[in-house]
Design goal:
mainly alpha, three-stranded antiparallel β-sheet, Cytochrome Bc1 Complex, Chain D, domain 2, Cyt_c-like_dom, two-stranded antiparallel sheet
Length: 479
Amino acid sequence: MQMLFLRRLESVSGVYRLVWDSWRMRERDRKGCISMSDFTEIAHQDSCSTFSSGPLSGLGRAITTGLATFAIATCVAGNGVAHAADSAHDALVEKGKYLTTAADCESCHTAKGGVPFAGGREFKLPMGVLYAPNITPDKETGIGEYTDDEFVSAMWDGVGRGGRHLYPAFPYTSYTKLSRDDVLAIKAYLFSLKPVHAVSPPNNMRFPFSQRWLMVGWNMLNNPGRRFEPDSSRSPEWNRGAYLVEALGHCGECHTPRGWTYGLKNSRALSGETMQGWKAYNITSDPKQGIGDWSESELEAYLATGHSDGRGSASGPMAEAVSYSLSRLTHDDIHAMVVYLKAVPPIADGVGVAPAPEQAKMPDPAASANSEGGRLFAGACKSCHTLSGAGRQTNYAAIAGAATVSDPEGTNLVRILLDGSVLDIEKNGIPTVHAFMPSFGLSHTDAELAVLSNYVLGHFSGVRGTVTADQVRDARTAQ
């Protein structure tokens, strides 16, 4: 009788072992589970043979069956919890991917020809040169060791791991308006990327800007340190647009003038500024200097595709913003941004743009087709842009009505002539737009590019351009 009882305990313990092994399997790869065939084998080879006779045979089978049922239920429930957790994490990563796109992180944190997000891109600023850091989850050269709180601190306060202050070329003064949930979703996406071991070049900031401790005082003056708060008197579209423009898209970092500390002049928000040799134009609702006379559809097209008929095409940093960020946003989000921008109080600063139908008045003799500028335009530009500015091969070549050809200083026009222009758009990984203009920096002298710029300004906008050979030379040197 004693031996029979021990054999029955061994059988029960076998079921317990199976439960334990299956649980460990599930924890290891979240795929293992106790199959019914496992229990059938135990029931017939162990339990049934052991409890096939005697007064306790019914009890033994009941114990075995109960354990089997418990194990299956435990495994199914455990797998359900694990799969739910996986699904929740996948959803968080997908959300983070969209937010990272809206925040345009890839553009700034990718060197020319480099691995996305691995850093190394150069930024030339008035106080020195900065290089974007690696934000892949590499633990030695990236952000792989960042905790949630450390990542939030970097995004909100501009203070990185170990208390190291970041320079405000990283737009944390805008990201500080992001919700904690959105910041951690961005972190989840970045941590899902393949780690890349890449060390960015050392920064070269002039004294005293090389002293990071000075950022303590700078932050007190310039970082609001507040989260975005919806305005209950405004529509949901306006509030969503405000969040995208002010926080995620950080449009003010380029389009808002800066003061003596290089902090944003928020009293003149979005009224235009020059950054890294490019003018970020006035995007307030002013009808002459801003976008006040743009229709919603024109502005939506420009943001989503980088081109709007009669308004020109995006180039330089704006083309990058379209390629890496804006073109990948949903239509609803683009529309929300437009709703918000159209409601921004007007500020009459910057470049006035004449409507496209009023172009080519040519009041300036320099705009004559027989002038040196006219001959240069005919040789280098006319075949693509045409004398009407309508563009020949593609709408992206249309320049009539663009702010670039209406600015008497010709700031962006000179940069485009020197650098060329590229705008690429993908939809679901498939290229849909490739707009390209070559550089004329090597084929033309500084004096020729100055003459050509003034011709373009006079011909397409009727303004007297002030571009000089010295200006072109300085822009070329700053490349």
